[in-house]
Amino acid sequence: MINRLYLVTAFGFLGFAAYVLVAEKDPKVPEDIVHRPTPIPDRIILNWHGDPSTTQAVTWRTDVSVKKPVAELAIAGDGPDFIKKAATFPASSETFQSDLNTAQYHSVRFSQLKPGTMYAYRVGDGFNWSEWNQFRTAEQGLAPVEFLYVGDAQNDIFQLWSRLIRQGYSEAPKARFIVHAGDLVNRASRDAEWGEWHAAAGWINRSVVSFPTPGNHEYGSKQLTTHWRPQFTLPENGVKGLEETSYYIDIHGVRMVALNSNRMQKEQAEWLDTLLSNNPNRWTVLTFHHPVYSAARSRDNKELRELWQPILDKHRVDIVLTGHDHTYARSNLRTGLSTREGTAGTVYVVSVSGPKMYNLDRESWMQRAAENTQLCQIIRIDGDTLHYEARTARGVLYDAFDLNKRQGKPNQLVNKVPQTPELRRQ
Ligand SMILES: [Fe+2]
To answer: From the CA of 185, how far away is ligand 1's center (Å)?
Structure first.
């Protein structure tokens, strides 16, 4: 017995020694070094917290050594002299403990900006600065607006989502904002995944506003990930208790509403009904994570559909942008009532931008569908027309339609689906 114990201990020790040797030779840089905060600002991201024509929020991260975080802002000029007119704004900061490190998140909310104006800003502490970045405030009133929409990024974000979001940006470099329909990351309590998400989009997030809504993966435990609120600066004009996850902004005659489909669906239904009862905008676009019409039979969200679709029908919401199903499926005009499909209602989209792929159950309501395809959507609203395009990670046009507003009548949908085969899992 003693001999056997001795042998087991000896082998255990040898195994441990071998592990240490291999581990020491492993050249992979540990996550806590890759994603370590420094005094140099990183994870810089634009959001709106209020009227996009007069406000702009910027949020960034540093280590805890930074004592006087500030942003500088000036109206951008054609040459470099604009910096002489820069004003300084102190940031509000919070210390944030992640699974890897202690950092600080800082934010500045610029307000009283001039509409339709290009501004330049940088963030730092008086010693270490970001580059000067540019953004343009929205016009007051009607003007064309273009934006990107992506479904779940979620997995292998740095390796395989980067090319998708960068290709999307190259297709629409004047896009004002990017809608992220939930599941931005997989394990939302892991700092490394958020580090990948910020790095994948890179400087795009410093000049194009992000408009995110959380998915089930931002709710790893029962609570919204603690990363969410420090790293974004979003409107707090939604349902009480869902600050910065249910909210809206109005831009160029479009009401953009983000709902949080993970929680408090009933309260949001009431809130949405009131919000859309008093909507002076021509167009209404909604985003949330869980689809109203799922792309797979086993993934139906019946409760959500029964609660929310009557309100979407009542207020003639134009288009609903969702994720969660890791496939692509786009409807005709649909209502929850027995109106003949295609003549009235809302366009429903499920899309995916990251590399995780599920199977699709092909249904007749799908005007275009895909499996195993990373997609980015480009939406341009100009007067009475909404132009929609879905493009693959290579930039190839995969789906398209126009939605036309008609006086006193439901929208008209004109399909422009390219004559290419539907992409399916081999
Ligand atoms: Fe999901």
So the answer is: 10
CA 238–ligand 1 middle distance (angstroms):
22
The pair of three-digit structure tokens given for residue 398, joined into one six-digit string: 């995969």
Ligand 1 ion: nearby residues, β-carbon < 5 Å: 183, 215-216, 324
CA of residue 42 to ligand 1 center, whole Å: 27
**How far is ligand 1, taken at its centre, from the CA of residue 163, in Å?**
21
* 182 Cα–ligand 1 center, Å: 7
Is the pTM higher than 0.90? The answer reads yes
342 CA distance to ligand 1 middle (Å): 28
Per-residue model confidence as pLDDT tens digits over 30-67: 999 999 999 999 999 999 999 999 999 999 999 999 99
Rounding to the nearest 10 degrees, give the CA dihedral for residues 175, 271, 230, 92. 90
Mean pLDDT across the stretch 224-238?
97
For 217, phi and psi rounded to 5 degrees?
-75, -10
Write the pLDDT tens digit of every residue in 132-162: 999 999 999 899 999 999 999 999 999 999 9
Q: How far is the CA of 354 from the centre of ligand 1 (A)?
A: 12
Q: What separation in Å is there between the alpha carbon of 292 and the centre of ligand 1?
A: 13
Distance 181 CA to ligand 1 centre (A): 9
Q: Is there a contact between 157 and 188 (Cβ–Cβ < 8 Å)? A: no
Mean pLDDT over each residue of the chain, to the nearest integer: 94
